[in-house]
Design a protein that fits this description.
By secondary structure, the chain is mostly helical. The protein is built from five helices and no strands.
Length: 119
């Protein structure tokens, strides 16, 4: 069973992981915008107008919601936490070792079930 201290540490690790995933997604989206602008030769102009930039963003549908695997894994882990099932293996129901959760707070499987869950 997880102690209150361990759970607090794991929650902080989950927030750090979520922050990193969202930052990565944001950088990726900005790269897509820049690439689209380059393809449309808008960047060739010294200062494209904001209207042109927004037009490209809207036409390319760049700002549509993207599901990032890391964020969905975090959402699943948070849902397990709310339901009181966090730290329990999804396959066998036994406790997941604290060390494993500290390393990966989204880990849904214990050490024994992990290999069989992937294959």
């Amino acid at each position: 069973m997880l102690s209150v201290t361990d759970l607090g540490t794991i929650k902080l690790a989950m927030l750090r992981k979520l922050d990193a995933a969202l930052q990565q997604s944001y950088r990726q989206t900005l790269l897509e915008v820049l690439n689209e602008l380059r393809m449309r030769s808008i960047v060739a102009q010294p200062d494209p107008t904001p209207d042109k930039v927004f037009s490209v963003i809207l036409q390319a549908r760049i700002l549509t919601y993207k599901s990032v695997p890391a964020t969905s894994q975090l959402r699943d882990a948070l849902e397990r936490m709310v339901r009181g099932k966090y730290g329990l293996c999804l396959r066998c129901g036994k406790d997941i070792p604290v060390e494993l959760l500290m390393n990966d707070p989204t880990q849904p499987y214990c050490t024994l079930c992990q290999p069989s869950a992937n294959g």
